[in-house]
Structure formats: C-alpha cells, structure tokens
Amino acid sequence: MTYTQTEPDHGSAASATPPDAAPEPVADIDDVARVLAPDGTRVADSALDPWIADLSPHELRALHRDMVLTRRLDAEGVALQRQGQLALWAPCRGQEAVQVGTAHALAPGDFVFPSYREHGVLLARGARPEGYVLAWRGEEHSAYDHTTINAAPPQIIIGAQTLHATGWAMGAQRDGSTDVAVAYFGDGATSQGDVNEAMVFASSFRAPVVFVCSNNQWAISEPVTVQAKYPIAGRAPGFGIPSLRIDGNDVLACAAAMRWALDRARRGEGPAFLEAVTYRMGPHTTSDDPTRYRTPDEVEMWAQRDPIARFEAYLCAAGVLDDSALAEVAAAADSLAAEVRAACIGATTRAPETVFDHVYAEPHAALAQQKADYVQYLAGFSAGEGIA
C-alpha cells in the first residue's frame, strides 16, 4: 500500500473520540502490499512486481539461504545467553524476511545504520562470526569493521541511528555520490523525537536515505496500538516522504519495496519510508518474558505466517528448491552456528586499559594521560583482589 499526503477529514468520527478512549486497531495486518500469500502462493501486485521481475533462481536461493542462516544464528545467540556466555541477546525470529529482503537490495557502497535486532542485515552484509557476539559478551564496543561491511555499530539508544543515517546521507549527497543510507528501527522508535527529527532533515534536504520500520507489533511490552492508532507508514507523507506499507513476512515484497526506495534515492528524489508489518516471535530481549503480555493464540496466528516456510513453499513449487538444496542450507546454518559459538567461547578478554584504544583515529596527549592514570589506578589494587 502506498501512502500519499491527503487533506484530513475534520468531520470524521475519529476526531470526536475522547482522549481516554481505548486505542482502535491500527489496521488489518492484511492491509499491506505483498507478492506472496501466507501459504506461499504467488499473487500479483502491479507496484511491486516490476522490481523483482529480474530475480534469478540463484538470487532467490541466496535470499532463502540467508533467511535460514539468520534464524539459526539467532537460535544460537539465545542459547549462548541462556548458558551464560552472553550478557544479553535481542532475538529476531520471525523478522528474517524484512531484514534479508531489504539488505539484498543494497549496493556495496550503501551504508546501513541498524538497531540491535538486525542480525540478518549484518549477515547479508558479510559480518564475520565474532561480529555477532563479542559486543553482547562485553568484549568489544563494536565487533565488526564498519569499513568492510558498510554498517554502523548496532544502536542501543532507540531511534538514534536515524539521525546518523540522515547525516551520512547528506554527506554522500554533498560528495556527489549515488550511495544511500538505510536506517533500521522498530515500531516503538517512531515515538522517539530522534526519528521525527531525522525525517524532517531528510525531507528538507532531499537526503538519499531509506527509513525501514519493522513493525513487529510490540515495543517491549506495549502493543503498537497504544502508540499508533493508524498505520505507521501513513505518518511519513506528513513530512513529505513517500511510503509503502508491506508484508514484512514476504521477503520478495521487502526486496521489491527496497529496490523502489533505493532507486528514487539514487535519482535524487529524496528519502522513502517502508513499514514492514511483521511479528517478533521471541522475547524483546532475553531478559524479557513475553508470556506476561501476549496470548498463545496471537503467537500461533503469526506462526502460521512464518516467512521462511512461506518462501520455501513458493520456491519448492517453482522448482527452485529441492530436498538436496534444503539439506545443504541446513548444513551451512549449523556450520555458521558452530563458528559463532566458537568465536564466543574462545574470546579472550583484553586488558582493562585497552578500553582507551580506538577511541580516536589518532592518539593525543589528553587520552594518553587518562590511560596512564587508569593504569596507575589499577596498579593500586593488590594482586589478590583482582578487578571486577
């Protein structure tokens, strides 16, 4: 569904709704653009179809492979946290389609600004096994080299990465580059001032940035209906930004929408906003208990819309996947999980004073003095006490 700016209906019943009224449903979850039905059947969409008409069987299999690898990686992250190897993990099960589909549409020079849940985006950009776990283990501030995969460190502060993405995009614009910035965030972030400020700047300066909102229905323990009585994609036109509301569990729809958004950004037409309607199948993080605020029926309903099962059904029916290919992908997923586990458990904790390393591109006297003071502080402890 495409949203455009329209005149508000000042006489609508909604305008007379008292402030303390219960939130109305945002919109039917099927009120979205899609090319794959939940059962994997191909459906026509005149707006999205042209953007994926050229996808080859090889590219389709690559989309599937990265979705399966993302899910296996996510399961390993949860297991490592439960076993005390990671301090925290933000699961992404159920959101593989929007992450992998949009990431596969990117060019190598595009730059990604993820939140803490975009494991599939980082995988598609080429992050190494240690890149997924060392930060969550507390060993590194950022566990991958942003210059090799063109991705900023995962942002913990809700919505802050949208400002970084817009600033990067304005810089690329001034450099005469055709590269595009992409900001990933959840539905809860749209209530943050940072997101709205980023959209103001992006619109005003026609910055080449794409905002990807994964509406996974829950901002920690608050449903999306508390903060958004109408579809989130409908907000963007108010900033002068065109938007699409897509099925976030349909990887082909996500790829098509992203290609559309990137194309217009590269042509100098400015930002775009994608609302991918999906579902967080697991907890918000491993410190959360979603059974306290979600019903089993709701979770089961979304399980029937599983993005991987949907895509597999389509690919198998089309003859693109067979049992042999599925077994090969499953083996690759297990291999990745083993590499991630080895990178986590085999990590070596660095000396405390190395916290000052890589803070600045070039060392300077003030930082050197701080490091020296800290080393002296550490030396004040007896050998038997240790440093916590």
Describe the 3D structure:
There is one protein chain. The protein has 388 residues and is an alpha/beta fold. The chain is 40% helix and 9% strand. The protein has 14 helices and eight strands. The strands form two sheets. It has a six-stranded mixed beta sheet, with helices on both faces. Mean pLDDT is 92; it is low at 5-19.
Structure characteristics:
40% helix; 388 residues; alpha/beta; globular; 8 strands; two-stranded antiparallel ribbon; six-stranded mixed beta sheet
Write the element-wise H/E pattern from the N-terminal end onward. EHHHEHHHHEHEEEHEHEHHHH
**Mean pLDDT, rounded to whole units?**
92
Report the biggest beta sheet as strand number plus sense, adding barrel if it closes. 6 strands, mixed
Question: Helix count, per DSSP?
Answer: 14
* Main sheet: strand order: 1-7-8-4-3-2
Oligomer: single chain
- DSSP, total strands: 8
**Model regions low in confidence, pLDDT < 50 over at least 5 residues:** 5-19
Radius of gyration: 22 Å
What is the end-to-end distance?
A: 53 Å
Shape: globular
